[in-house]
Amino acid sequence: MQKDLEKASSRREFLSAASQVTKVSALAGVALPHVHAAENNTLEVALVGAGGRGTGAAGNALSVDHGPIKLVAMADIVPKKLSDSYDKLKTQFGDKVDVPAERRFLGFDAYRHAMDALKPGGIVILATPPAFRWVHFQYAIEKGLHTFMEKPVTVDGPTTKRMFELADRASRKNLKAAVGLMVRHCRARQELLNRIRDGQIGEIIAMRAYRMGQRGGTAPPKPPEMPEVMYQLSRFHAFLWASGGVFSDYYIHQIDECSWMKGAWPVEAHGLGGRHYRGDSMDQNFDVYSVEFVYPDGTRLFFDGRNMAGARDEFASYAHGSKGSAVISTFAHTPGLTRIYKGHHIPRVSNRNQLPLPPDPNVVWAYPQPEKSPYQLEWDDLIEAIRKDTPYNEVRRGAEASLVTSMGRMAAHTGQLITYEQMLNCPHEFAPDVDKLTPDGPAPLQLLPNGKYPMPEPGIKIDREY
Ligand SMILES: NC(=O)c1ccc[n+]([C@@H]2O[C@H](COP(=O)([O-])OP(=O)(O)OC[C@H]3O[C@@H](n4cnc5c(N)ncnc54)[C@H](O)[C@@H]3O)[C@@H](O)[C@H]2O)c1
């Protein structure tokens, strides 16, 4: 998939796509705003960012069993991503996908055309790399649209402040806005939270979370014909401006779920990390991270992240209390398999093949199986809120989760203690002109004379990450 993206993003193909965009955009301006016939109660959806998750989210939207719903417009910057996504959704959902060629838009302004194709009260899915989130959300609010946006929603302090302001603006217009921290909608985690609040593990003393896998966030050198901006976006996990790197993109879920169980956001982080085996990868990530997050009452979350082939895998979150312990995530996001143990002996799972776990006399409660996927539940909940017109805005919470994740990342990247306030007020905006980005224009990250991108250097660069 990555290869296709790179191929499709070559300068030649992009420029030919750009001429299609002009054609399509011209049409959009004339005839399109609300051309498709819809029953009055049909919810109309547009997808911006038709990659893996965007396609998945659109599928979840179309699977909600709560009245008629249709996908009516799509936007991306890479022709093949757009066509693959369309083909997949059309095959799976048939008439629920009503996106003729003239409502499939390409280019950096495609998001506008896709949203222009919706009436106020429609829903837009924002599933591009997070750098564009505030730009696209701002336009969605202007157009009176409900939003589903993927996490992270910000990667630095200045855009977090902007997101806080946009969250309030959406609420003032009674627009519903969901953030793809889907674990918050998992019924097994919700039940665990009730039990923790009920005191079943006592006071939380410490939490641990691990996201350790084989690889991630690398970027082979740029193919010569590929425009710099398209290259960096095709490998967005590799570049901090585009994604916050693997730290923000991968680790936010577990930092969020632990903070949810704790009932607070961490106020300070201390972190370590380093690069060992990145080879000729051009990315800005470390391949190991270890971060200690401090909560207002002094309790800690110890988080370990690793992307290293051959090392042991673990993808789990645990809470330890004064009366027992709990598993928040067992291996990956779903199923949660949440459990409460007496004592603190929790078996570690390195591989899905270890599931289901054998009976354990220390387990005092376990969520009954099977569980519904939280990726579907987050959509069931959003659509119910839209249909019943109940308040629904997860953006402030999503921006806070994004900010505390950035706080951990900055602590590791600078080698400093970083507080919530320092992160929020750090003036380094990673991509200040991201709303004006063009495929052939300058990228937010520039190569140094040594042919490398600027890298975090803990202890040397201490006020900003690169
Ligand atoms: N909640 C989850 O568990 C989960 C899982 C996977 C991804 N995600 C999030 O979803 C987002 C997308 O990730 P993905 O894995 O789908 O990546 P992807 O590369 O498969 O998809 C991103 C798509 O956005 C397009 N794009 C980039 N810039 C654009 C722009 N300015 N306008 C329109 N389209 C643009 C790309 O061409 C690509 O098709 C990320 O924020 C990621 O963190 C969330």
Specify the CATH class of the largest domain: Alpha Beta
What name does CATH use for the topology of the largest domain?
A: Dihydrodipicolinate Reductase, domain 2
Helix content: 25-40%
Report mean pLDDT, rounded to a whole number.
93
Rg from alpha-carbon coordinates: 22 Å
Major beta sheet summary: 9 strands, mixed
Describe the structure.
By secondary structure, the protein is of the alpha/beta class. It folds into 2 domains: 2-183 and 378-393, Rossmann fold (3-Layer(aba) Sandwich), CATH 3.40.50; 187-373 and 403-436, Dihydrodipicolinate Reductase, domain 2, CATH 3.30.360.10. The protein has helices at residues 2-8, 11-31, 52-62, 79-93, 110-116, 133-142, 157-172, 187-197, 228-234, 240-243, 245-262, 374-388, 395-414, 420-425; strands at 43-48, 69-76, 104-106, 123-126, 146-149, 177-179, 204-213, 268-274, 288-294, 300-307, 314-321, 324-329, 339-342, 363-366, 418-419. The strands form 2 sheets. The chain has a 9-stranded mixed β-sheet. The longest helix is centred in the N-terminal third of the chain and has 21 residues, at 11-31. It is globular, with a radius of gyration of 22 Å. The chain starts with a helix and ends in a 41-residue tail after the last helix. Residues 1-38 have low confidence and may be disordered. Residues 48-54, 75-78, 81, 108, 110-111, 127-130, 132, 150-151, 180, 182, 233, 249 line the site of nicotinamide-adenine-dinucleotide (NAD).
